[in-house]
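FAQ

Q: What does a record look like?
A: Structure on top, sequence underneath. For example:
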């Protein structure tokens, strides 16, 4: 057995864990020392969208499966749904030392990147520096502030997957398989498929490079053997995500990420994927914010009018025209790039410098992997700014058209830079400081720190204005430019100074003149300060709020007035209906907040609901509302329309169709376009519009005395009773979804018909009947069993495999 030295083998890892924990505790100190929580916009909205599902879970211990409180109903897969992956959850909690979300994801990013750097044979103290750079990058912190917890969590485990695969290809197969299995299962559980897609691209390039080197070394059999062993490991990890993946993949075809059934009348084509996939695109010069955060003015939320020391504020304050000054205050943004909403993804000036060192010193096989990945990240992040490239990928790269926010591709760069920088430093230390290496260090400093100082010196060559700002008054625009220029120059000097400090340490071989721990302590400190100071520009005390138990939203007078009605209905909030979730917190809403709505419901909103809303507002302003004209709102059972917090801002709709009704006749059409067009024109209480190319109905009759009464509602279950003297067509104010819903009449299953573009209908025989709708989707019923079994097998593999691997290392 090998002699185990605590100082050599264990102490560095204890120090690493301690550094990561200390940074996490103090960086998010209000959470741990002031009993506060981060105010995250998307998480706040999540509390509204998931309220009904969470309440049902707490009351019954079961999963709701269907989110009926938002968008008139949609699958709960991407809203709030727990799967049987308890062992995977347990591994995450153990690795994060039970830190609370979302800060646990930052700690995990430190740990996983540290493990990856160790797998690439980077010394522990240098690995700490690289891990801190990755976890504290503005890309991660801004993601946390936005409430993108799934994205940040998926990114945190991404290095662990890479570590496992690299260990396997480094002939540590058992350890590599264990780390790969755990890392991939943890990554997939976060359920952010865009990050998984990026991981696949990252690994594809890695695999190509490994294959080329194996081919040159005549080791193809070893390469194929490693791949063959990793495939079942990956399948096992995928099994822990089987139910989720099945559900998301199935639902995506019916969501806004899937194809529309509507034909564009201008080009006679059916749209595929996202309608506006590149709405969040970098400008061509925007990647410079990786090294100079205020290269384009910083965040879009920064306004000089809020800074009394700024020239813009002083110019506005001295204006004699107060009305004009108030208007111009809206144009005092520090940011002057092309995006409408952004904060710079700063990677760290020191890290960019080390990345260039990596390009000059690291082994070529790592450069051939990480440099193309970094370039790809920039190209993808440009989105519309490099439309010829990105629309080509959008049209031809499988699956790429399912994602939005191309700026997320900056992940490739923030992942690659610390890794290649650490590998480059290792090679530099191996070669030592001599004339040749000093020459390369000067080159690295020149293209990073030197460039920063040159930008500061020649800042006059930049315009510091956005498109359209040339129309602003010269006295205001000049002040605005001066403030932006001052921010730009200050950050250029700041980044240059951080780079200069590390360059001097390396150039004069300081690491040989002081202790190794002292040198790396300084490096860790400087990297932490470099990145953390910029992070704190966006993570301020205003981002925290006092914990208030489980109360996410305050109930208004309007909510109280509506909740007096105990019947089954929906509420339509005119104040940002499709961009808010507070209505869903208290009521069933026809609106909501979610990035992956059902495609047909979005179509319905874009045309019919919007048209009804505009007509309603026009009528309200004229003082003559006729609710019979708002057929689509009526068929969605929008019994209450809200436009404010006061009880007086609640409009009762007496013509809401109710939960279900018999129609007098059918309006047949031959295409989705015709169906959507006709549903806006008919009286939905009397007429059902049916796409004859998809659904057929038998002859039916109408009896004005016939009724369908609502009896009971649960998230995945609805019960009604019908009474009719004739066979009729019953329409239900519930959204049609082709997968998982089953309808029965007196226990006998009957087909569900889609009517009115988005609703359900049944042919109901005469007499008294019990009608039930049950949502039993196969991805959950079957997929959850696969998830359960795979998760426990994975746990056995990880615990047993780690034990065997550690024992093998010690022998």
């Amino acid at each position: 057995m090998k002699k185990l030295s605590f100082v050599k083998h264990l102490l560095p890892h204890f120090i690493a864990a301690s550094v990561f924990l200390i940074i996490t505790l103090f960086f998010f100190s209000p959470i741990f020392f002031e009993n506060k929580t981060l105010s995250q916009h998307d998480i706040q909205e999540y509390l509204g969208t998931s309220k009904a599902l969470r309440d049902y879970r707490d009351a019954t211990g079961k999963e709701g499966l269907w989110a009926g409180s938002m968008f008139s109903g949609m699958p709960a897969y991407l809203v709030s749904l727990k799967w049987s992956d308890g062992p995977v959850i347990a591994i995450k909690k153990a690795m994060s030392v039970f830190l609370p979300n979302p800060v646990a994801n930052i700690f995990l990013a430190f740990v996983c990147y540290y493990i990856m750097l160790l797998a690439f044979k980077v010394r522990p103290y240098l690995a700490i520096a690289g891990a801190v750079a990755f976890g504290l990058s503005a890309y991660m912190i801004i993601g946390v502030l936005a409430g993108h917890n799934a994205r940040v969590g998926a990114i945190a485990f991404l290095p662990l997957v890479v570590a496992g695969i690299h260990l396997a290809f480094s002939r540590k197969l058992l350890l590599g398989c264990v780390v790969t299995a755990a890392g991939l299962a943890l990554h997939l559980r976060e359920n952010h498929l865009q990050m998984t897609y990026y991981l696949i691209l990252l690994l594809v390039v890695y695999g190509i490079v490994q294959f080329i080197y194996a081919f040159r070394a005549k080791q193809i059999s070893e390469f194929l053997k490693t791949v063959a062993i990793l495939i079942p490991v990956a399948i096992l990890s995928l099994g822990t995500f089987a139910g989720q993946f099945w559900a998301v993949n199935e639902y995506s075809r019916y969501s806004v990420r899937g194809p529309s059934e509507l034909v564009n009348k201008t080009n006679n084509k059916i749209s595929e994927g996202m309608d506006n996939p590149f709405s969040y695109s970098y400008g061509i010069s925007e990647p410079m914010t990786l090294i100079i955060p205020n290269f384009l003015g910083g965040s879009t939320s920064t306004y000089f009018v809020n800074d009394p020391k700024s020239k813009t504020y002083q110019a506005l304050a001295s204006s004699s025209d107060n009305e004009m000054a108030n208007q111009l205050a809206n144009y005092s943004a520090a940011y002057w790039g092309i995006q409408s909403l952004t904060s710079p993804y700063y990677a760290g000036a020191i890290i960019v410098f080390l990345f260039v060192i990596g390009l000059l010193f690291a082994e070529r096989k790592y450069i051939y992997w990480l440099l193309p990945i970094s370039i790809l990240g920039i190209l993808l992040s440009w989105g519309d700014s490099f439309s010829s490239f990105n629309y080509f990928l959008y049209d031809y790269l499988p699956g790429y058209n399912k994602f939005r926010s191309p700026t997320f591709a900056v992940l490739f760069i923030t992942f690659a830079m610390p890794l290649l920088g650490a590998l480059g430093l290792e090679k530099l230390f191996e070669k030592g400081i001599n004339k040749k290496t000093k020459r390369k260090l000067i080159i690295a400093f020149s293209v990073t720190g030197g460039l920063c100082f040159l930008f500061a010196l020649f800042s006059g060559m930049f315009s510091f204005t956005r498109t359209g700002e040339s129309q602003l008054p010269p006295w205001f625009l000049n002040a605005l430019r001066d403030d932006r220029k001052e921010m730009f120059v200050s950050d250029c000097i700041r980044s240059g100074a951080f780079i200069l400090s590390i360059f001097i340490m390396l150039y004069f071989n300081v690491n040989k003149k002081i202790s190794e721990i002292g040198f790396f302590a300084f490096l860790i400190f400087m990297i932490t300060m470099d990145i953390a100071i910029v992070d704190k520009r966006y993570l301020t005390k205003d981002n925290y709020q006092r914990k208030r138990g489980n109360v996410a939203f305050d109930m208004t007078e309007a909510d109280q007035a509506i909740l007096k009605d105990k019947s089954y209905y929906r509420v339509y909030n005119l104040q940002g209906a499709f961009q808010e979730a507070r209505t869903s917190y208290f009521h069933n809403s026809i609106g909501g907040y979610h990035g992956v709505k059902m495609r047909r419901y979005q179509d319905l909103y874009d045309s019919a609901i919007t048209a009804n809303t505009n007509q309603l507002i026009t009528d309200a302003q004229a003082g003559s509302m006729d609710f019979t004209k708002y057929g689509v709102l009526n068929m969605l059972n929008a019994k209450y329309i809200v436009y404010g917090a006061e009880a007086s801002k609640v409009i009762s709709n007496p013509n809401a169709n109710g939960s279900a009704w018999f129609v007098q006749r059918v309006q047949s059409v031959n295409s989705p376009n015709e169906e959507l067009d006709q549903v806006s024109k008919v009286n939905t209480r009397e007429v059902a519009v049916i796409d004859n190319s998809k659904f057929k109905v038998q002859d039916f009759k109408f009896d004005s005395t016939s009724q369908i009464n609502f009896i009971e509602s649960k998230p995945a279950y609805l019960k009604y009773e019908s009474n009719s003297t004739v066979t009729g067509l019953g329409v239900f104010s519930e959204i049609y979804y082709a997968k998982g819903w089953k309808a029965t009449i007196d226990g006998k299953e009957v087909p569900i018909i889609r009517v009115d573009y988005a609703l359900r209908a049944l042919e109901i025989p005469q007499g008294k009947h019990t009608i039930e709708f049950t949502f039993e989707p196969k991805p959950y019923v079957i997929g959850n069993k696969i998830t359960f079994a795979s998760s426990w097998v994975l746990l056995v593999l990880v615990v047993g495999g780690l034990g065997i691997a550690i024992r093998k290392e010690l022998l």
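Q: Is there anything notable about this one?
A: The first strand starts at residue 36 and ends at 38.
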